[in-house]
Amino acid sequence: MDKLKKVLSGEDDGNSDTPGILSRANQASTLSWGARMRGFIICFVLGVFCSILGTCLLWIPGFGLVVFAVLYSVGNLCALGSTMFLVGPLRQVKNMCAKERAIATTVMLVCLVLTLCAAFWWKNNGLALLFCVMQFVAFTWYGLSYIPFARDAVIKMFSLCL
């Protein structure tokens, strides 16, 4: 468990001789490990709750799709931001911009903005729903990048189905 704490907090960067900027930033942080875990869990659960609530409110006539688009997008942001409690904001941004995640991150964030634009400014429910689906696919692809060989398995599974 101590090794997991060190890796997630950025203290175990493979070079124990000189502390890196991440370990120095984590040492200067005022949050304890328990507070980080509570923050992660609260933020992640809030994100999932917003997404589920948005899905339940989707079927309200008139304004359901707009509420869904907003709550689903806020839920995705909360779920994405929850990992910042574990690894810190700088490392999270570096992870998001890593070579294997950059395209999924870009597509997810662009679709998030386009979802809100379609819901509020363009008033196009079809586009809002399409962008929410694209958000889901991009967020799933982003999440799979953290699991070794998961993307390859998904690609192989879909190629076998088709």
Quick rundown:
With 162 residues, the protein is mainly α. 76% of the residues lie in helices and 0% in strands. Helix 4 packs across helix 5 (89-96).
Give short descriptive properties of this protein:
mainly alpha, 162 residues
The SS-based structural class is: mainly alpha
The level of helicity is: over 70%
Q: Which runs of at least 5 residues are low in confidence (pLDDT < 50)?
A: none
Q: Approximately how much beta-strand content do the residues carry?
A: under 5%
Question: What is the overall silhouette?
Answer: globular
How many runs of DSSP E, i.e. beta strands?
A: 0
Tally of separate helices: 8
Question: SSE order, as H and E?
Answer: HHHHHHHH
> Ends: how far apart?
42 Å
Gyration radius, to the nearest Å? 18 Å
Mean pLDDT, all residues: 85
Report on the biggest sheet.
none
How would you portray this structure in words?
By secondary structure, this protein is an all-alpha fold. 76% of the residues lie in helices and 0% in strands. Helix 4 (64-87) packs across helix 5 (89-96), helix 4 (64-87) packs antiparallel against helix 6 (102-120) and helix 4 (64-87) runs parallel beside helix 7. The longest helix is centred in the N-terminal third of the chain and has 24 residues, at 33-56. It is globular. The model has no long low-confidence stretch (mean pLDDT 85).
